[in-house]
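Q: Convert this sequence to structure tokens.
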Amino acid sequence: MSSDDAYSSFLDQANQDTGASKSSAAAKTATTKAVDTEVPMELQSVEQYYTSEADEPFEPVSLQWDGNNMPSEKEFASLIGHQSEVTIGSMTPNEFDPRGQYEEVLQAVGNAGDGKSRIYRVSHGKTRMEYYVVGLDKGKGRVVGMKAKAVES
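A:
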């Protein structure tokens, strides 16, 4: 009987949460700001996934911006609350969507903003990315669009 109790005790200890998985998962998760103002209706109805090794859904973006033009890469980094290890670049819509897979996203962003789209590629290390497809809504002083997380190895 005591060997059963000892084995049961061993299993209980082995199955205890050490917290190690939480800290390592949190360290690998890329976090940037995407919403700090009202999200346009055109963006709330988009249900599309970005195709990568993760196949993540596009999420709405709506950030306050007082500029008359789209933010530079440095300004955008500040706008999304970037971390020091983040690298930001920009792409044209044709570079982002050469096969026409994301027309719904580009159209919704165009409708929510001024009709033009800019794509920012936010790198979180070598394989984790976020793609921000955004436009300018001068009337309400904001940058609006969609973002998707990607894993590319």
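Helices lie at 2-14, 20-28, 41-44, 73-79, 93-96, 103-112.
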